[in-house]
Amino acid sequence: MSKKITNTLLSILEQILDNSTSPSVLVLEMGHLKIGKEKTRYRWSKNNISYSEKLIRNIINKYKKNIRIIPTIIINDFSAISTVNTDQIKSRCISDTIYIKKDKVPVFTEKNLRNRIMAKLRKSKLLRTSYDRVFLVGQDPVCNIPIGTVSATDKFTIIPKCGLITYSYIIDIIKLAKERLYNENNLLVGIVSFSQYYEELESMKIGYEILLSTNKKTNTYAIMIYWADD
User: Fold this and answer.
1) 3-state SS, residue 16
2) 103 CB neighbour count, 10 Å cutoff
């Protein structure tokens, strides 16, 4: 990974953290594995994890115990024919690390993320449909957010956009961050994501935009990095 990228990333983090008085948690989205494309995805994720290990070391050297860091992995399991063995996946990705502990790395599967967010949104009564499109009502009633489409074969089934699944991930990690800091209310949560493909970067951007549109008071920031597997 480029030293220039590392220095830029550390500089951005320093500007944010040095000017914040809130307790801080930094969440790293180290890998986005897709079942069926394990070979290239594992190589790319392992590179990210190696990079994250060095990044965490630099951050800890500067901020000591004043920041909590949570490394995470996302798995696209929509093509999986059985339950994903997350422990096995972590064992294949994480090795020879000091700061990243396998048993401390939460793994999020996209099926679960989708199911949880759809159940939550249906209960919230914030969904609106127009023809075959589904919208989420934001805090600004004029600005509804497109989050999916209605199934052509079942009008009660919603096919969510990837950004909605990423939004579900962001909600989950904010909740997890608060739990790790004993439900601290004035918590600053940072997200650093690594994307292998441009559509993954776009998904993360949309997910974060949905968060900002539905929760104006959120105390978060996001740094999104896109690099291909060379």
Assistant:
1) helix
2) 7
Q: Are 163 and 147 in contact (CB under 8 A)?
A: yes
The Cβ-side half-sphere exposure at 227, using a 13 Å CA radius, reads 16
Q: What H or E segment, with its residue span, contains residue 141?
A: none
**7, 212 in Cβ contact below 8 A?**
no
Q: Of 169 and 228, which is predicted with more confidence?
A: 169
CA pair distance 217, 220, nearest whole angstrom: 9
CA 9 to chain centre: 17
The pLDDT of residue 143: 55
Strands (E), the chain: 24-34, 67-76, 107-109, 127-130, 133-137, 144-150, 158-160, 188-195, 220-226
* Rounded-to-integer distance, Cα 11 and Cα 17, Å: 10
Bigger pLDDT: 180 or 27?
27
State the average pLDDT for the chain: 83
Q: Is-contact 24 66, C-beta < 8 A?
A: yes
CA-based end-to-end distance of the chain: 10
Question: What HEC string does 209-227 produce?
Answer: HHHHHHCCCCCEEEEEEEC
Strand order in the sheet with 127-130: 127-130, 133-137, 144-150, 158-160
The pLDDT tens digits for 86-99 are: 898 888 889 889 99
Residue 101's identity, in one-letter code, is K
DSSP β-ladder status, 24-34 and 188-195: parallel
